[in-house]
Structures are given as C-alpha cells and as structure tokens.
Amino acid sequence: MFSCRAAWQRCGPLARRAAYRLPQDGESEKSHSDCLLPPQAYNTVVSDHTRYNERIAEIKARPTTEWVPKPWPPKSSSE
C-alpha cells in the first residue's frame, strides 16, 4: 500500500501534465475496409474465418440432451 502511494505521489503530477488525445472531427470509427492487407495476411484471415465457421457449425451439429436439474434437497444415503 505504501509503495503504491509513494509512486502516485511521485508520478501523479507527471500523469496529470501528460498530453492526451482530443476527439477529432469526422468519423469516430473508421471502417476496416480502409486498410490494405498483404496477400499472405489476407489469405490467413480468410482461412481462419472459414475454419472458425466450420468449427461453429460442427459444435452446433453435436447432439445435446436437455438439462434436467437434480432434485432438491438431495436424499441422504440412509433414506
């Protein structure tokens, strides 16, 4: 606790004087289509996306049983 307090007392003024980024006019979020990927990176992204979709389809295709809660209160072994 003390070391943390000492660090804040020493570095606090520096943190308060530090420059921070102001919001700019225009779009708040840029579209990801604005960036250009190298061909190898593009192929990796596309193959990962395809593999992810195949994996999700495989998981959803698994048979599932309906969850049934255990009776409450549990019966003791003596009964």
From TrEMBL:
One of its GO terms (biological process) is anterograde axonal transport. InterPro entries: MGARP. One of its GO terms (cellular component) is axon cytoplasm. It comes from the Eukaryota. This is Uncharacterized protein. It comes from Stegastes partitus.
